[in-house]
Structure formats: C-alpha cells, structure tokens
Design a protein that fits this description.
Blueprint lengths: L4 H18 L4 H17 L14 H8 L13 H7 L7 E6 L2 E2 L12 E4 H7 L1 H7 L9 H8 L5 E5 L9 E8 L5 E3 L2 E6 L4 E11 L4 E11 L4 E9 L4 E11 L4 E10 L2 E10 L5 E10 L4 E10 L5 E10 L4 E10 L6 E11 L5 E10 L4 E10 L3 H9 L4 H14 L8 H15 L2
Parallel strand pairs: 1-5, 4-7, 5-8, 6-9, 7-9, 8-10, 9-11, 10-12, 11-13, 12-14, 13-15, 14-16, 15-17, 16-18, 17-19, 18-20
Antiparallel strand pairs: 1-2, 3-4
Helix pairs in contact: 1-2, 1-3, 2-7, 5-6, 8-9, 9-10
Length: 436
Amino acid sequence: MSMTLSQKDAMNQIAEVHEQTVAKIPAVVAEKAKAAWEALATEGLPAPKAEEYKYTSITKQIEKHFDFTAEVPAGKLTAEEVEALRFASVDADVFVVENGVFNPAISHFDAANYTACSLAEAADQHADLLAAHFAKHPHQEDPFLQLNTAMTANGVFIHVAKNKVVEKPILLLHINDTREGQVIAQPRNMVIAAQSAAVTVFERYRTIGEQKSLNNVVTEVFAEANANVNYYKIEDEGDAAYHVGNTMIVQSRDSVVSTFTMTLNGAMVRNNINFVLDGENITSNMYGLSLLKGTSHVDNHTTVDHTHPNCESNELYKGVYDEKSAGVFNGKIFVREGAQKTNAFQSNKNILLTDDASIDTKPQLEIWADDVKCSHGCTNGQLDPEQLFYLRARGIDKKTAHGMLLYAFAADVLENIHIDALREELEKIIHERAGY
C-alpha cells in the first residue's frame, strides 16, 4: 500500500519512538514489539479508504494534530482531582493511569486476592506469566493494536490466581492531563483470571485541560477455564480527545465474560472489542450504549469468533445521537467449521434526534457450521410518535415525555452492570442527557 507524504511523516515519527522504546523495554515484550512494528511498517496506519476504517478517518486527524516525537507532559494530577474524576460512590480499588503511565502515588488499592503491578514490574516479577499472555490473542491485524504493541512500555497488570474471587471492583482510571500540552497515551493493560477465578474490572476515561489528546489503548483479558470476568468501559473524554481502544478477550472452556461499553463524549472514538471463544460451553456477553451530541463520533467494531461447539454469545448495542453527532456499528460473528450447537445473537438499535445526526450500521454473520442458531439485526429511527402521543394524552408535558422514552430506551442496557453503585451513577447520567 502506498503512503501519502503525511502518512510517511507519521510513520517516521513512530519509527523513531519505537526504536527508543525497544531499547529500554524488557526482552519478554521486546520481540513482540519488533514484530508489531514490522507489520505496521509494511501496511501503515489505515488509509482513508481502508474498509475497516472508512467511516472513521482517525488517521487523518492523527496526522493533522499529533507529533509522536513530542515529549508527553508528566501530568500534575492531585489526589483531590482524581477523586473528582472517578465515581466516588463506587467502592473500588483505583489504579490511576496518568497520561498513559500507571501512577501508584495517586492510586489506592488493597489488591486483596489478586496480584497487581505495572506492566514493567510484571516483566520483572512475573515474566513467565506475562510471556504466556502478552499479545497472544489470535487476531493482531488492527494497525492501532500493532502501534500500541510496538510502543509498549506502560500499563497495569492484574492476575487473579486459581479459585480466587475478587469481591471489590477494580477501577483503571485513565486521565489525560493536557493542561501543559497535548498528550499521546498508549497504555497496555492485562487482566488474567485463572481457573475458576472471578473479577470485575472497569475502566473510566477522562480528560483535564483543553488541548488535544490521543488515547491508543489496549486491554487484554484472559478468562481461563470456569473463570468469570466482568469488564466495563466508560468513555467521557474532552471535546478535543481522540480515542482508539482495542479490547482483546480470549476465553477458555466453561468461562463467562460480560462486557459493557458506554461512550458519552470525545472528538472521535473507535472501540474494537474482539472475542475468541477457545473452548466449549463458553458464554460471551457484549453490551454497549452511546449517548452523543455536538459533533462527537463513535465507531464500535465487535468481533466474536466461535471456534468450538456448544457456546453462546449475546450482543446488544444501542445509540442515541443528537445534534451533529455520528455513530458507526460494525459487528462480526464467525462460526467456524466444527463449532456446532452455537447460539449467537446480535442486535443494534439507534435513535437519531435530529436530521443532522447519523448512523452507519453493518451487522455480519459468517457461518461454516450447520447446526447453529444465529441472528442479527439493526433498527435506526426516531422516537415512536405513538408512544409520545400516549404519554402526552396522560398529561405529561412534551419535554418530560421525550425524556422518559429516551431513558427507557437507554437504561435497559444498564441491567447488565453488576456493580449497583456504578449502575446508579450511569443512570444519573442518562437522566441528565435525557432531560428527565
């Protein structure tokens, strides 16, 4: 693939930073970083007409606004600012990732029933465990995933040992502090739930300051046999924030993983969530909700790869788009040959509140097995006028009726969040956005 001059400039910057990174990272990840760079150098960042990114021209924005060789400000977050930017009502262990770097000084956690440290410390203290899991998801094709792997130096490592149950939720609080300059953050997080372990992890993304920021984050989740993992992601970044997230999930037999992704703000957001069901009797659940206004743009790409029989995946993504905001949903389900008795369900529902709001949807099924139950579908439209009329006829004013319907549409997705305090916080946000 040929590259434009601006693409070459960006790739030259990335090459320079990659060489500096590889020179100082541990050997356990350095070889993977080199291989990722070689793949990225061959194909480059996604071109404007690249099929997987044709509705989300984030490469163009990166080339226009960001310099990979510029020094990233260290950040000056205080404990008080951290407290204000997390959900204070949620009792959780808090790991603060400041401008892409785990900062234990402003974090607070007990780490009861699990091991936690920085990615660099994991390379030293848990080298075998890290080597067995780092970049081991079968699908490594995404250019931004390759970019993150090529630059890997920082992030949070979490390991829950066999039969351990972590009662307290774990919060990875990503804050980009742009008050001293623009920020490029590329953290790499890893969550490993060993056999019959259970853990709930949620990530929240926030921004301080008015300058531009880029989050190119990868979170790898491994659920071993009979493990149970809940993973939630809440994105509420600044108007000048760009975000690419790759969540890479591998499940072993009899495991259950449930994800929830909520996007509230950001200049341009791309979420890639990739499941591989690598065993029998696996359950995978994916839920998502986007509530956007202004000119915010979100692109949710999901992949579910059924490789073994007797598994089930459930997927429900909803979006509410106001003003000039835009959404994209592309969901792929693969059912491989031999993955008989697969149940796979996918649904995408969207409401457009103005003529200027937009949504592009593309649900996909590729099936190589014959004894399966699979379905997919999408609906795009406006609020139901008959329901509005029904509420108005019962004396409810137009604004309240409008808000009630929006809340009812959005809030049912939250039923899948198993942290009561977090669900209540998100319900408040929906109430505010719905004006009800």
